[in-house]
Specification:
mainly alpha, 4 helices, about 75% helix
Length: about 120
C-alpha cells in the first residue's frame, strides 16, 4: 500500500517506513488511550445515571469532570499517535508525555468532588 492511499497522509507521507514492531507498539498505546477515554466517559455517565447518594451539585460537577477528561483522552490518543508515528518515520527522538499527568490529576479532582459531596 502506497503512502498516498493511507490515511492520514500527513503521517504516512513523510519519512521512511519504521520497524513494524514500533508502529504496532504506538498503535497499542493509542488503543490504551481510547480505552481510558471510554472508561472516563462511562464514569461520568454512570454518576448521573445511577442514584449515587451524593449531593447532586457535587455529583454533576464530578460527572462533568470525568466527561471532559474523556474528551481530553480522545485528543491525547490521536495527538500522541500522530506525534510518535511521525517521529518514528523521521528518525527523531520520541516525544515526551503530554497529557497523562493532567488526566490523572483531573480524575483525582473528580474523586475529591465525590468525597465532598458524600460529606455534604
Amino acid at each position: 500500500m502506497s503512502a498516498e492511499s493511507r490515511f492520514p497522509r500527513s503521517v504516512y507521507g513523510v519519512g521512511t517506513e519504521p520497524d513494524p514492531r514500533f508502529s504496532l507498539a504506538n498503535e497499542r498505546t493509542y488503543l490504551a488511550w481510547l480505552r481510558t477515554a471510554l472508561a472516563l466517559f462511562a464514569a461520568g455517565v454512570a454518576l448521573e445515571a445511577l442514584d449515587v447518594p451524593v449531593d447532586p451539585r457535587f455529583r454533576l460537577a464530578s460527572a462533568a469532570v470525568f466527561v471532559l477528561l474523556g474528551l481530553l483522552g480522545l485528543v491525547q490518543a490521536w495527538r500522541g499517535w500522530v506525534r510518535t508515528e511521525r517521529a518514528l518515520r523521521e528518525a527523531r527522538p520520541l516525544p515526551g508525555p503530554s497529557i497523562g499527568v493532567v488526566v490523572g490529576a483531573g480524575a483525582g479532582v473528580a474523586m475529591l468532588l465525590l468525597a465532598a459531596g458524600a460529606l455534604a
